[in-house]
């Protein structure tokens, strides 16, 4: 037997009916905190700053990959 029950209510009404706590004030505070942190970090998202950090990481990663390949080749040549 299959039964479908459709309830038309707002999220607040459903929360009260199920006895769940009202966390809207906490949600508002968290949203404000996230907004403040994002605004504080916007200068780090400038294009020139992103390119500097990516290029520095890229060069180091390329060097590490080259060393890894050299170690693999030398190990396979010995074996």
Helix-strand layout with pairing:
Blueprint: H1 11-18, H2 24-40, H3 47-78
Describe this structure in words.
- The chain has three helices and no strands.
- By secondary structure, it is mainly alpha-helical.
- The model has no long low-confidence stretch (mean pLDDT 84).
For this entry, give a set of tags.
mainly alpha; 79 residues
How many domain regions?
A: 2
What fraction strand? Answer: under 5%
Number of strands: 0
Weakly predicted, low-confidence segments: none
Classify the helix fraction into a percent range. Answer: over 70%
Q: Which structural class best describes the helix and strand composition?
A: mainly alpha
Computed over alpha carbons, the radius of gyration is: 27 Å
Mean pLDDT: 84
Q: Tell me, briefly, the overall form.
A: elongated
Kindly, what is the distance between the CA atoms of the first and last residues, rounded to a whole number of angstroms? Answer: 68 Å
Order of helices and strands: HHH
Q: Count of helical segments?
A: 3
What does the largest sheet look like?
none
């Amino acid at each position: 037997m299959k039964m479908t029950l459709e309830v038309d209510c707002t999220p607040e009404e459903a929360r009260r009916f199920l006895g769940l706590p009202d966390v809207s004030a906490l949600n508002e505070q968290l949203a404000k905190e996230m907004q403040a942190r994002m605004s504080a970090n916007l200068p780090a998202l400038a294009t020139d700053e992103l390119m500097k950090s990516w290029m520095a990481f890229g060069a180091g990663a390329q060097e590490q990959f080259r060393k890894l390949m050299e170690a693999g080749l030398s190990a396979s040549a010995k074996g």
